[in-house]
Design a protein that fits this description.
mainly alpha, 9 helices, elongated
């Protein structure tokens, strides 16, 4: 029993330690962001890495998610004579919830892990120490391009996911005989600008969380190749966990009580 409590205490202490480090790094970067010296080329490179290279994966996942939603809901709507709402429900689900979360998880797994591994390698090979020797703030110099790229590209990917996911749902319901105009009119009826803005706000938060967690984990890497591997895993796990936690909080704040 004592050993179990000791293990639990160490796990909680490690959890709080990393959470505090992530918050501390986020505060440090935000404070120094207005006067940060960052190469524009590094920002555009990171934007390509985060956005362009993630398009295919986001497209496939979003399209099939929209189709699965249509498969799961269409028969129920037909049973109750509510087929006129199917398009709006699919679009609303993609815009409010599925697209921001799926895009965040895809970026966390594909890009966040890469960021953490890259920064972790820089840490264990003392490249970050070299930056500090040149008078640069390594947290700002390395972290800011990745954070800015994520803040720009994750919302763009989310818009793309909303469109592809809704179209995927349309393909299935059209195959089942629902007229395109019924699908389109139900979207106009149920979806408004507030819903889209809410989904984009979520994606903006997730983009920041993914990049800051990846950077925070990378900066704490130690112990050579094994440490870099552990850091990469930690970045993905923490990013996905925080995305799901924040999704509940933001959904309650933005859409709780809204019809």
């Amino acid at each position: 029993m004592v050993k179990w409590l000791e293990t639990l205490g160490k796990a909680i202490a490690s959890f709080l330690d990393l959470l505090g480090w992530i918050a501390s790094l986020a505060f440090h970067v935000l404070v120094h962001l207005p006067r940060a010296r960052v190469d524009l080329r590094s920002i555009t490179d990171q934007m390509e890495r985060v956005g362009v290279q993630s398009v295919f994966m986001v497209s496939v996942i979003s399209a099939f998610t929209g189709m699965v939603m249509a498969v799961q809901t269409l028969d129920q709507f037909l049973k109750f004579g509510a087929s006129g709402y199917i398009g709006g429900v699919i679009a609303l689900s993609m815009i409010r919830e599925m697209s921001p979360v799926l895009t965040g998880i895809v970026v966390a797994g594909r890009v966040g892990s890469s960021m953490a591994a890259e920064i972790g390698t820089m840490k264990v090979t003392e490249q970050l120490d070299a930056l500090r020797a040149f008078g640069l703030d390594e947290y700002v110099f390395v972290g800011v391009p990745r954070i800015l790229a994520s803040l720009v590209m994750v919302p763009i990917l989310t818009i793309f996911s909303m469109t592809v996911g809704t179209f995927g749902g349309y393909l299935y319901v059209a195959f089942r005989g629902i007229h395109p105009l019924i699908f389109k009119d139900s979207i106009k009826l149920l979806v408004n600008v507030y819903d889209i803005n809410g989904g984009l706000l979520k994606s903006l938060v997730y983009g920041f969380v993914i990049s800051i967690v990846a950077c925070a984990c990378g900066f704490r890497a130690e112990g050579g190749a094994k440490g870099v591997g552990e850091t990469t895993t930690l970045a993905v796990v923490w990013s996905n966990m925080l995305i799901l936690i924040l999704n509940y909080m933001l959904s309650t704040l933005l859409f709780g009580g809204r019809v």
